[in-house]
Specification:
The complex is a heterodimer of chains A (359) and B (244). With 359 residues, chain A is of the alpha/beta class. In chain A, 42% of the residues lie in helices and 20% in strands. Chain A folds into two domains: 186 residues, Rossmann fold, CATH 3.40.50.970; 109 residues, 3-Layer(aba) Sandwich (Rossmann fold), CATH 3.40.50. Chain A is built from twelve helices and 15 strands. A seven-stranded mixed beta sheet of chain A has the order 3-2-4-5-7-6-13, sandwiched between helices. In chain A, strands 10-12-11-14-15 form a five-stranded mixed beta sheet, with helices on both faces. With 244 residues, chain B is an alpha/beta fold. Chain B has a single domain, classed as 3-Layer(aba) Sandwich (Rossmann fold). Helix content of chain B is 34%, strand content 16%. Chain B has eight helices and seven strands, in the order H-E-E-H-E-H-H-E-H-E-H-E-H-H-E. Classes of the chains: A alpha/beta (359), B alpha/beta (244). Chains A and B meet through helix 3, helix 4 and strand 9 of A and strand 2, helix 2 and helix 4 of B. Strand 9 of chain A pairs parallel with strand 2 of chain B.
């Protein structure tokens, strides 16, 4: 076990390698370009690691799928408009139950927007494409988590065969922090091995595999999707993750995810020092969402504060999951702008003094 | 082999095939089956196919097969080949998949000399969706989206192999065949796939194919349009052949 002072993007690459990633495909886009650059450096040193800089994000997505079909742990990273283009490939991965792994560095949108930060790719990452959102999305809060969840994302993807995402942002990717670098086995984490979908040497002699995403009949597709959804629901309890920080005795519970949750945690500490009973509920898996735990966390509370760097993507997710809880909801929403602990403290104080506006 | 027999690599369970009567694509795929048989690569290759009429071939062969999204067959194939270089990768696409929606992939794959084999069907229209204007539609040829016939303002008929010959390295194999010339197309396929097997790099065969349903032509008119009208604009032959 050793500690290293690393930029977030480098941490992600080290985590991917620890998880057994063998290949990366990608197209440069801020704020995930450095993930590609660090991988390219590693691949230049180690012939077992492959790298493909493609002509665009569609190509990056589909080349990743091609590598996965060959039985290689491949991944990609993208952001904003690149994430939009990659939905084509992620939809196919969803249809074919392919274990894609993608690191999404959220940037300000819509369109080209700004290049560093937002929480506006929640909808797109969790539910993008012309499908049912059968995807697993981890929302990290920077530093050590980038290493831990990079490892976890590959294992989750290959174990359950649903497209898996680590939702970050430019603040996380570009911030340097102290990270504990370990081998998964040191923490009793078993790495899931990849198996090829095509040209699998284990398959029965004389048989051939035909994989398609096209169906002749509506009912044929419906049956497949109902089966997928059933499996997704069955595995959900194994996947769900959240952080519950002092919600038990809290009068007001903050809902935040990603880096905003890190700010909210500082706000909770500060408010608690003043004797104010505030807690934080932070879903780490946005999809699937820790619904039951969220409902428990808000029952019989004075209020909920939902805060996010978006105009309500997370709010909609929280509300739909805690319904029919009737706890009053307050919001602090700043599209594409970071949220400081002080702003959260101020908002909470307003709510306590009953000046806060309901959402 | 008599030309009426089915290739050994064809999947008998998916026959009769799903293409329209008189379709040139089915012929092109029969000849591909013959090439697979003669090169004895059935168990060492993957077949990747696009959207459009090409998707109808997803169960055509007793070969490991992946059917992808429109225009994305090439990047998927390139990713597979990168991950498993010993596999032989054959990508099948239409003129929409290769020259329109996936044109950037064809261009960059060719430019990088990626070691895959691409077979592209040129039937001068978008057939699966009912006969719309394609990059390969001839001037004055009527389609549902060019009811008066293609005008110059809609662009000149797109010459894929000629463009690829310009941008590829000397190691690339580039040819244009026609589905009605069995022996010639068979040789083109074999040379193209051998180019990949022998490690030279990218290979590409465009195949002119009849589309009687969307051309609204009878048997003789279909042959005439493909072999005379189209071949006039799209000359048949090898544009680049690094094999000795």
């Amino acid at each position: 076990m050793k500690k290293e002072f690393l930029m977030g993007s480098e941490t992600i690459v080290k985590g991917a390698i620890a998880a057994g990633a063998q290949m990366m495909t990608g197209y440069p886009i801020t704020p995930t370009t450095e993930i590609m650059e660090h991988w390219a450096e590693e691949a230049a040193k180690n012939p077992a690691l492959k790298f493909l800089q493609t002509e665009d994000e569609m190509s990056a997505g589909f080349a990743m799928i091609g590598a996965i079909l060959a039985g290689v742990k491949a991944f990609t990273a993208s952001a904003g408009p690149g994430n939009v283009l990659m939905q084509d490939a992620f939809s196919m991965a969803e249809n074919m139950r392919l274990p894609t792994v993608a690191f999404i560095g959220q940037r300000g949108g819509p369109s080209t927007g700004t290049v560093i930060y937002s929480q506006q790719e929640l909808n797109l990452t969790c539910f993008g494409g012309n499908g049912e959102g059968l995807r697993i999305v981890y929302s990290t809060a920077g530093g050590q988590e980038l290493y831990d969840y990079a490892i976890k994302a590959f294992n989750t993807a290959w174990k359950y065969r649903f497209p898996t995402f680590v939702l970050t942002d430019g603040y996380q990717n570009k911030t340097q922090s102290s990270v504990e670098i370990y081998q998964p086995q040191e923490k009793q984490v078993e790495i899931v091995s990849p198996t090829p979908y095509l040209l699998n040497p284990q398959k029965q002699e004389g048989t051939f595999t035909h994989i398609r995403n096209t169906y002749n009949l509506e009912q044929e597709l419906a049956d497949v999707l109902i089966d997928y959804k059933k499996h997704f629901t069955e595995i959900t309890p194994e996947i769900l993750e959240f952080e519950d920080y002092h919600t038990l005795d809290a009068e007001i519970v903050i809902f935040a995810h990603g880096i905003v949750a890190a700010a909210a945690k500082l706000a909770v500490d500060s408010l608690r020092n003043e004797g104010k009973k505030v807690g934080l509920f932070r879903p780490i898996t946005l999809n699937p969402f820790p619904k039951e735990s969220a409902i428990n966390a808000v029952t019989n509370k004075k209020g909920i504060l939902i805060t996010e760097s978006s105009l309500g993507q997370f709010e909609r997710m929280v509300k739909s999951n805690i319904y029919p809880a009737n706890t009053p909801i307050f919001t602090l929403k700043k599209p594409a702008v970071g949220i400081m602990p002080e702003e959260i403290i101020e908002k909470i104080n307003q709510i306590f003094s009953e000046k806060g506006n309901n959402a | 082999m008599p030309e009426t027999a089915l290739p050994k690599s064809w999947n008998k369970e998916s026959k009769p095939h799903k293409f329209c009567p008189g379709c040139g694509q089915a012929l092109a795929l029969k000849i591909l089956g013959q090439a697979i048989d003669e090169l004895d690569i059935q168990k060492k290759m993957i077949y990747a196919t696009d959207i459009g009429c090409s998707l109808l071939s997803w169960s055509m062969f007793n070969v490991d097969t992946i059917q992808t999204h429109h225009g994305r067959t090439l990047p998927l194939s390139v990713g597979f080949k990168k991950a498993k270089p010993e596999a032989i990768v054959v990508s099948f696409t239409g003129d929409g998949g290769g020259y329109a929606i996936g044109a950037q992939h064809l261009l960059n794959t060719a430019m990088r000399n990626d070691p895959i084999t691409v077979i592209l069907i040129n039937n001068a229209n978008y057939a699966m969706t009912g006969g719309q204007l394609a990059p390969t539609t001839l001037l004055n040829q009527k389609t549902t989206t060019a009811p008066k016939g293609r005008e110059l303002a809609q662009g000149k008929p797109f010459k894929g192999p000629e463009m690829l010959a310009q941008i590829t390295s000397e190691d690339a194999h580039i040819a244009r065949g026609i589905s009605t010339n069995y022996q010639q197309l068979l040789e083109m396929y074999k040379k193209a796939i051998s180019n990949q097997i022998e490690g030279r790099g990218f290979s590409f065969v465009e195949v002119i194919a009849m589309c009687p349903v969307n051309w609204h032509t009878d048997a003789q008119q279909s042959l005439d349009f493909a072999e005379i009208e189209m071949a006039k604009i799209y000359p048949i032959g090898e544009l680049k052949c690094p094999q000795k």
